[in-house]
Amino acid sequence: MLGSVILRTVHGCQLAIATVSQCNRCCTGTKQLAKLLSSAATGGWCQPAMRFSQQLPGFEPRRLLLLTKITRLEYERSLNPHLSEEKLKDHLKRKGSDYDNLLLHHNIHHGTLNSLVAHLQQRGIDCQVVSRNMYTLAAIDWADAVVSAGGDGTFLLAASRIKSATKPLIGVNTDPGKSEGYLCMPTSKTAPDAIDALLAGRFRWLWRQRIRVSMSTGLPSSSQSSADSPADGASRLQSLHLKYPEYRFSEHYKELEEAWLRRQPMLQCQEHELSPLPVLALNEVFIGESLSARVSYYEMGLGREGRMRKQKSSGVTVCTGTGSTSWYFHINHLSESQVEEILHYANQLADSPDGSGSRSRRYTPAEIASIARNYNSALTFDPELIRMAWAVRDPVVNSVFAADQCRGVTDLIRVRSRMWDARLVIDGDYAFSFNDGCVALLEMRPEDAICCPY
After folding, report:
1. Region for 70 from its dihedrals, namely left if φ exceeds 0, alpha if ψ lies in -120 to 50, beta otherwise
2. Which of 39-43, 44-48, 104-108 has the least mean pLDDT?
3. 275 shares a domain with 139
4. What is stated as this protein's family in its record (predicted)?
């Protein structure tokens, strides 16, 4: 046995959360487990601190909660309840939207959803279908597992509110022609076939790490006297809708959202106290000004003892291994033309100043493509790794502000706001006020991981 033991059980299989004893179903033996724990202690970047993505038998849920996306057509209907279907069709046509195409994908989604529900009921599984405004903690607690029926946006929404690492999340892409569904189960099978494969144990568990965010005003309670004070926004730890929201329809349907967030337990912040936000980030956390044209001003420190450095930029993105294939990847991605330009200047440096010799070389298009591909693939990392990758967008560089490092990996990040209309945004969906004096602590904890089949 290795040290103290903290075990949880998922469908008959014991899983370690902190330190673990040998478990034949999840690990191949004590030596391998000791190696994993050593990696966790030393902060190794090359492999996950804990991995339990082994094949597990006996997934036999009795109750499933299905979170369904809001289709674009449903969203348009909700915005225009006074219009008949024919008038809605004309209204969409004037906006340049294709009603028939929206109806087609609406029917595809609900056809997949209905067939999935019918199949689960035939298997004797109790199902409950909810949309995002009915996706509550009570509903999640009722279920043995959660199924997201939609695309990646629906999957991220489902993940944000699941608190337990022992509550599986299963992603079903209901319309592969409309959404890639990167986080969902492979689309080579129909939804009922995929469920049958799960129930037969033909899958592996993947423990996707998530980011926990805790916030504090950093101000004494006595200083928070006026609702009109610029610092007042920093003291409000509730979801604030973006002034100009990005209406991606199913992913950003906000009905009753603010009321739900205000009901979640959150401590009253005193000076230097931190309160965890009621949602966890599976993809990324963004910190910056609400108006993207404004410069974001903040202090940031990396690691447990990291010194706070003042920075100005277009904001900071912090991601998990899951999110490293998304926004973070595109921020840092290099095109082949950029690689070619860098190699051009490298060749100039390699040439002898007196012209007596040259160490430069010409790279073929295939070599340039290979360099770009290798660089970009190195940006992504294992979703089970207890590490966060961060990137500063468009850093300001002058005699006052330095940007010697614009991205990296860490296990903890502190950010203090020096902004007046800023937001801390989780997975592009939940926006929290983050104004002058407010402090955010971003970290990963093994117990915050979410288990998903793959």
Report:
1. beta
2. 39-43
3. no
4. Belongs to the NAD kinase family.
* CA proximity to 1, closest of 16, 10, 11: 16
Q: Same domain for 442 and 321?
A: yes
Residue 174 sits in the same domain as residue 317: no
Please tell me the distance from the alpha carbon of residue 77 to that of residue 79, in angstroms, as a whole number: 5
Tell me the residue range of the domain where 431 lies: 212-331+379-447
Residues 6+ apart with CB under 8 A from 409: 45, 381, 387, 388, 389, 390
- Please tell me whether residue 430 adopts helix, strand or coil conformation: strand
Closest listed residue to residue 47, CA positions, set 383, 322, 424:
383
CA distance 244 to 89: 25
Distance CA 315, CA 391 (A): 9
Question: Which domain CATH number covers 117?
Answer: 3.40.50
Say yes or no: 90 and 231 in one domain.
Answer: no
Separation between Cα atoms, residue 383 and residue 329, nearest integer Å: 14
In terms of Cβ atoms closer than 10 Å to its own Cβ (0-12, 13-18, 19+), residue 396 is middle
Residue with tokens 């967030």, as numbered in its chain: 261
* pLDDT, tens digit, 9 for 90 and up, residues 384-443: 999 999 999 999 888 777 777 889 999 999 999 999 999 999 999 899 999 999 999 999
